[in-house]
């Protein structure tokens, strides 16, 4: 298993290099360092000297990908691409265009993001699986059909509607919780409640229906019939047998997401004014801050790959037959 | 009049052509017809298809673009208006041109905001002014409005029912005069047909009511600059359909080619393709889309001279959005196809073909491709509704369609700031969400019917007829 993990982690390196190359190409194909300097300096102060100085200060005065002038391995290392991306592998993201340390920014913004994402994830998972199990218990009755119909309607509603509608109903009509904003510590609870409820409500339709399909597939199998023939009660069949055996397909979809929770949700955070990583990303995109976007893309990819590895590990936990080699 | 074919128009025509050819192709092959007959037997599936086809008709009418000739001539040459219109705009007629000053509620006769008005005896009063078009035929709206709305609504509904009834009678007459076949050979069994006709009648009555009211009122109110919200919602349909279908059209070749190649050839081909899609899918898709859209905006701004009209520019942006969404969304399908091909290539009939010396290309096109098409079809219809919903979110975040393009996303974006007003301006938001809900719900239900009919994991005991 250790050997397997090491191989997977080594395999992640070329993928991360590819991710970096892609974002790099995306930004610099249309946006030359000169353009970036002009945008940062503003229209008034643009002189060739000022641009050259800005580029030197920010390390953009080198060739993009390949340095013909340098010697030996310097041909590849003495470039903007290498200088800007090599340090990311040790999680040093450098500075954003407004001069702040990106790594520190990420650390401080991680907490609010997690405060929203973690409860949404766990409460959501609990509710979706309970709902799906209930539908499975009452399968092929009017209750089940009504449940599925409700799911289809819920998943056809735009996610924006949950946010706008929920924000309006709860905060304006009933004055329960503030519409947006964030505070540290225990005060954060009243800011977190609404986004979490809306986040959970937004996923009920598709997730519950998906889990129901998994459970139904499992319930048609032979071991379930055997259990029933031995007189095991239906509830016990569902919780002891079906739920356990449905873990593999459930984990496949769920574990990948766990590391990505750090990234926060772009939409929820920008709507509710939460100073998390999601809104950080949106701001960076709007300001065309290459440093921050690249850092977030890199972080996202690292977390995604970590999620894939975690998924494999989690299989061994729920299913003793799975061995990683 | 000069017909204009924008890029997305061309792709939609291509899509329609592909659709017509495949219908012709499938109709001649009983084994391909079989799953579609199962779809036709599903009541929910067929009713949602009927609703979807209404949306598609509006979208296609809105795709036939032209530029009107202006009355004046320049050196004997006809000058064309810079405004690109569509056949739908002509059919909508007054809906497009009857704009008010600003907001007005659905079916209102008065404006939303107060203005200084001069009364008959010369005094100036602040009151709600009458609308220029909405309910302009009424002498005293406060007394007559409700009665008039009800009267017109009922007349419209009856008219719609009459047309729908005539149509239903025609369908019944055609069916009776056709030679009788055994029940299993019929495309549409009687109970499905009955459900379809009832839905058609309901829709006809509904459309009749709305159309009759829309001729003198703003049925869904007006927006900030006084445009009719019903018109905006109907125009948004095309944008939604383009995003949902053209994206699939551009990503399908990639996913199909790479997925099947990776599964069939294995070895280094598989490694390279797996590497590409792991890289692409490991970037959070919203980030990738946002970065790509921003870059595209920079290019379009730098080359403003590429585009003759504003519509052409907005259209290229829409197309680019489809391309970008396609690039980020093909990986899932590619992975599915690779897995299925890996399974298929070990089958006896493929090995037999290989043993007979059939070329790889022929094995792929004759044996593998037809056997993975059900996966492609299912994922295409499933993706459609997700893409329509994604458009609204992306336009809201600011990385979606051009702000001048009418779409559900831009409508929601414009309307959401008005929620804080008192009294609340809810109608634009409600219409955008309502139209989107109907479209996506119909698409979801139809997708379910298609999946149930095509999924080979469901055991069925029926034979091709």
Summary?
The complex is a heterodimer of chains A (325) and B (465). Helix content of chain A is 73%, strand content 0%.
Helix content of chain B: 55-70%
Q: CATH superfamily of the largest domain in chain B, called what?
A: MetI-like
Q: What is the count of helical runs of chain B?
A: 15
- Mean pLDDT across every amino acid position of chain A: 81
Number of DSSP E strands of chain B: 5
List the uncertain runs of chain A.
none
| Distance separating the two termini of chain B | 50 Å
What is the total number of structural domains of chain B? Answer: 2
Question: Please, could you describe this protein's structure?
Answer:
The complex is a heterodimer of chains A (325) and B (465). Chain A has 325 residues and is an all-alpha fold. In chain A, 73% of the residues lie in helices and 0% in strands. Chain A contains 16 helices and no strands. Chain A has helices spanning 2-30, 33-41, 48-58, 74-77, 80-86, 102-137, 142-156, 159-173, 188-219, 222-229, 234-245, 247-254, 257-260, 266-272, 277-287, 290-318. The mean pLDDT of chain A is 81. By secondary structure, chain B is mainly α. Chain B folds into two domains: 100-214, no CATH class; 228-464, MetI-like fold. Chain B contains 15 helices and five strands. In chain B, helix 6 runs antiparallel to helix 7 (190-214). At the A-B interface, helix 1, helix 7, helix 8, helix 14 and helix 15 of A face helix 9, helix 10, helix 13, helix 14 and helix 15 of B.
